[in-house]
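Shipment paperwork, digital attachment
Item: protein structure file
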Amino acid sequence: MDRRTAYTRMVIKQAFLKYLSDKPLEQITIKEICLEANINRATFYRNYKDLYDVFEEIENDLMQEAFPNGAVEYDITQLLEVIYNNQVFYKEFFNNHLQSNFIKNITDEMKESFANTLKEKNVYDEQNYNYYFHFAIHGATGFLKEWLDNGCVPPPKKFSVLLLRMCYNLFDM
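Attachment content:
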């Protein structure tokens, strides 16, 4: 991608996030984004098919930032840091987009990573793992939404300890 395209996409995403801090995704218009980003509609459509496409690209960018390696403890802390640093986006995300590719990707990443951790600690139960995991992941999703709604207090590192403790207690670790 050339520098002009990268710059255009960056200003579109910045404008999108600015409006997302004030109103839900469904109320944002392409006209507003174009005015804020100082571009015309043709430029917007040359880069994105619609606002949901912008949202999905931001999702994918943040997904890559959240999972840089395979250690469950590090990944959870890193995920919480990404959420903390992008609260405006994630408030909208958890309020309206829980069936997105982002949740599916996080679930898949965490399922494999958490299973490996349990195997290393000799507490992996192959027969019941899927039930435990899905119970934990849906509880964790609600836990994250509550954390966001309360202004991300406590900070990510402390919150990750609490979240991991709850998950490990579920698996008797």
